[in-house]
TrEMBL record:
PROSITE patterns: MFS (PS50850). It is found in: Cell membrane. Pfam families: MFS_1. Residues 23-422 form the Major facilitator superfamily (MFS) profile domain. This is MFS transporter. The chain crosses the membrane at residues 21-39, 59-81, 88-106, 118-141, 153-172, 178-197, 230-251, 263-284, 296-315, 321-345, 357-378, 398-417. GO terms for cellular component: plasma membrane. Coiled coil: none annotated. It is a multi-pass membrane protein. Keywords: Membrane, Transmembrane, Transmembrane helix, Transport. GO terms for molecular function: transmembrane transporter activity. The keyword Nuclease does not apply.
């Protein structure tokens, strides 16, 4: 692999101070919009099924294809991010999301709508890893776990906007005007990014130049690090259930399956986001204080999700409201737990490769999400071929049970790569494991010491 030439850099802005927070604030606003676009079918799914006259499998195609594009672009986006920086990627991502959502607003056919969602997914793919790179570069190492968690949690405001205000706009303005109005927000944020976002607090004499002929080897090198895989499987096992529930199948499961009202279902989706904020702040403190046990924390969150899901699915008939709420809150905790994957990868990766590492980590949860979404749609159609209105509670329970296979696979892989990752650190960086066991974060030598 062609190695980047040594760079000379001069710090021209304070790390972790006011300018860092301003840049992060603009970037997080873009991420909120990305989550809003991504989550919009969570409440528009039933309307979309009627508008385009499609089955559950076809409805799942919207979100699955969007996530296929999202996940498939993470590696090339990571390379482009290391080459061009967060500012350029935020601009490109915003432009694609705005165009895609506007096209979705005016789509009259299923094929055109699917193509529009694919464009939205391509833009969405560039946003989150760009924001995480800003956190890595602009904030102190001791600040990073908390800022990473707050990044994920603040982004979920987009899910709240999709669950509540978008539902109102769809009923008040109709499909076309509602989605056209939301697409216009991207133009405003594009101006803010151009005016305020900077890639780094340093003035560099060179950039990280990853040439196309070196792409395969650079990705293989980052992927070969067991810390990258540990982060990816941590993201895989903890994120998919919350994503599947919030983006597509939670609302139909609550309304069509459990018999909840549309208002009650929307309120629960918003309450899940509020709970994610609370649990995320707790997880951030735990991760910062117990860096050695980060992957165990992820496993514990997964177990906390599996138990109430089992109660809901095995309950004769519809489970009581309090059990469903407990399940939903436990599921919401998976979002903050997924952020731990990026913190794990940061311990194993130098700053100049963090874009590629974060891209690979981000593949995990979204790959699991799209597979689970698609399988749920397939199981529903196999259970009853009469369309969305024909699915019973038992059909939904059977379909939702596909999650167990992914939880089991993910937990096994997290424990597997935890062992490999610790062995790698002990071999390559002697003393690092003991440092983390003592409650001190390990800083990869490639990051340097100025951010500690």
């Amino acid at each position: 692999m062609t190695q980047p030439r040594p760079t000379r850099q001069w710090q021209v802005h304070d790390i972790g101070k006011r300018r860092a927070w301003v840049i992060w604030g603009v970037a997080i606003a873009v991420y909120v919009l990305a989550v809003f676009h991504r989550s919009s079918l969570g409440v528009a799914g039933l309307i979309a099924a009627d508008r385009f006259d499609i089955s559950a499998t076809s409805l799942a195609t919207f979100t699955v294809l969007q996530l296929v594009v999202y996940a498939g672009m993470q590696v090339p986006v990571g390379v482009l991010l290391d080459r061009f920086g967060s500012r350029a990627m935020l601009i490109w991502g915003l432009s694609l999301m705005t165009v895609g959502q506007l096209a979705f607003a005016f789509s009259e056919s299923f094929a055109a709508a699917v193509a529009a969602r694919a464009v939205v997914g391509a833009g969405d793919a560039m946003i989150f890893v760009s924001v995480i790179r800003i956190v890595t570069v602009w904030f102190l190492v001791r600040q990073a776990p908390m800022v990473t968690q707050v990044t994920g949690l603040t982004g979920q405001l987009g899910a709240i906007a999709a669950a509540g205000p978008l539902s109102y706009l769809l009923h008040a303005l109709g499909w076309t005007r509602a989605f056209a109005l939301t697409s216009s927000v991207g133009v405003v944020l594009l101006v803010a990014v151009l005016a305020l976002v900077k890639d780094s607090p340093y003035r560099r004499s060179d950039v990280v130049a990853i040439k196309l002929r070196a792409l395969a080897q650079s990705v293989r090198t980052v992927w070969g690090n067991p810390g990258t895989r540990l982060g990816m499987w941590s993201h895989f096992v903890s994120q998919f259930s919350a994503t599947v529930f919030a983006l597509l199948w939670g609302y139909p499961f609550l309304v069509q399956g459990l018999g909840w009202s549309s208002g009650g279902a929307s309120a629960l989706l918003m309450a899940m986001t509020a709970w994610a904020v609370v649990s995320g702040l707790v997880l951030a403190r735990l991760v910062a204080r117990l860096p050695y046990y980060r992957s165990y924390i992820v496993v514990c969150v997964v177990v906390a999700m599996v138990v109430p899901w089992t109660a809901v699915l095995l309950w004769p008939g519809a489970a009581p409201g309090w059990v469903v709420v407990l399940m939903a809150f436990a599921t919401a905790s998976g979002g903050p737990a997924a952020m731990v994957g990026f913190d794990l990868a940061r311990s194993f990766t130098p700053a100049q490769a963090i874009g590629r590492a974060n891209g690979l980590v981000n593949v995990g949860g979204f790959t699991a999400s799209l597979l689970v979404m698609g399988l749920i749609g397939v199981v529903l159609d196999l259970s009853s071929s009469g369309g969305m209105d024909s699915y019973t509670l038992d059909d939904f329970k059977l379909a939702m049970a596909v999650q167990y296979a992914f939880w089991a696979l993910g937990v096994v892989q997290v424990l597997r790569y935890r062992r490999r990752g610790l062995a790698h650190l002990a071999r390559v960086h002697p003393g690092s494991v003991e440092q983390m066991r003592a409650g001190q974060p390990f800083v990869h030598p490639g990051i340097g010491t100025e951010g500690v």
